[in-house]
From TrEMBL:
Known EC number: 1.8.1.9
Keywords per UniProt: Disulfide bond, FAD, Flavoprotein, NADP, Oxidoreductase, Redox-active center
Protein name: Thioredoxin reductase
Domain FAD/NAD(P)-binding, first and last residues per copy: 9-299
Lineage: Bacteria, Bacillati, Actinomycetota, Actinomycetes, Kitasatosporales
Gene Ontology biological-process annotations: removal of superoxide radicals
Length: 314
């Protein structure tokens, strides 16, 4: 293990819209941010998608990886230093915080911005990731528009699944909700809304056993009955997976306060966490909105909060 003598003003952990926006603002404030962007996931979740049509400023839409490359270049232009590595350990307790990279090098900073995002839960089917953006999606707000007049399946039984299903009826010809159990977990009001929508039907006691593809696009599904194991085919060219997400907070457990679902707790509307000098931004904090623009907005807020915290120290 080695340690630099330099104590930075700010370390940012994460290089999605939240991390890069925090980097841009802290760099322009001349705080020399050191950004750990991840070893394999530089640029964050949007690097796994193609067209982004709802990020303001791009009337024709923008490719997800291109948008993230632009955000990176903009932060670097003002001096943000971006390292393509994971942070493996943190000690956030003291006035000077330490973060340790995968090579064991310890980096020190007076403020840390956590923007590690969250991951959508997957079904675990072999071609699920390959079909992402090719009929399989995790976000109706992001992708619903692309599914006009299609037969769509939503998998899940909670509020998010009902919300996605109801939202998708604006575009879809039909929506089938597939749920493993015979009753939904969703709240009464969300259930009623879905039950009363004539475009929505339900496949209870069912799970998705296989995804079929034609020319690289989703062309249908096999459903398996969870009670007797029998299978049946379902023609659908869209699948929205709404079985939850997991915030990437393992690293901070025991040091920062998390809520019951594992999300980082902040003193909303600020981005202050339970530890002075540590700020949280983006999907690692956000149960509700989970969009690139909201992540970028909270990255900006975290940078401003960090800037004010550092100014008060001097
Ligand atoms: P992320 O973008 O998830 O970034 C998290 C970052 O943290 C990554 O860089 C990762 O490498 C890093 N990280 C994690 N752990 C560590 C660690 N230990 N050390 C160092 N780095 C770490 N939103 C829209 O607004 N419009 C869309 O069209 C849209 N489409 C989407 C399509 C797909 C397929 C997906 C998955 C999401 C989509 N979203 C869309 C949602 C959007 O991508 C997220 O809301 C947004 O990226 C969240 O930003 P974030 O910065 O909080 O986290």
């Amino acid at each position: 293990m080695s340690a630099g003598t330099d104590v930075r003003d700010v370390v940012v952990i994460g290089s999605g819209p939240a991390g890069y926006t925090a980097a841009l603002y802290t760099a322009r404030a001349e705080l020399r941010p050191l950004v750990f962007g991840g070893a394999v996931f530089v640029g964050g979740s949007l690097t796994t998608t193609t067209e982004v049509e709802n990020f303001p400023g791009f009337p024709e839409g923008v490719d997800g990886p291109v948008l993230m490359e632009n955000m990176r270049a903009q932060a670097e232009r003002f001096g943000a230093e971006i390292v393509e590595d994971d942070i493996a350990a943190v000690d956030l307790t003291g006035d000077v915080k330490t973060v340790t990279d995968t090579a064991g090098t310890v980096h020190r900073a007076r403020a840390v911005i956590v923007a590690t995002g969250s991951g959508y839960r997957r079904l675990g089917l072999p071609n699920e990731d390959a079909l992402s953006g090719r009929g399989v999606s995790w976000c109706a707000t992001c992708d619903g528009f692309f599914f006009r007049d299609r037969d769509i399946v939503v998998v899940g039984g909670g509020d998010t699944a009902m919300e996605e299903a109801t939202f998708l009826t604006r575009f879809a010809r039909s929506v089938t909700v597939v749920h493993r159990r015979s009753t939904l977990r969703a709240s009464q009001v969300m259930r009623n809304r879905a039950f009363s929508d004539e475009k929505i039907s339900f496949a209870f006691d069912s799970e998705i056993a296989a995804l079929h593809e034609e020319n690289g696009m989703l062309s249908g599904l096999t459903l398996r009955d969870t009670r007797d194991g029998t299978t049946r085919e379902l023609a659908a060219t869209g699948l929205f997976i709404a079985i939850g997400h997991d915030p990437r907070t393992e690293l901070f457990r025991g040091q920062l306060e998390l809520d019951s679902a594992g999300y980082l707790k902040v003193e909303s509307p600020s981005t202050r966490t339970s530890v002075p000098g540590v700020f949280g931004a983006g999907d690692v904090v956000d149960h509700t909105y989970r969009q690139a623009i909201t992540a970028a907005g909270s990255g900006c807020a975290a940078a401003l909060d960090a800037e004010r915290y550092l100014a008060a120290l001097s």
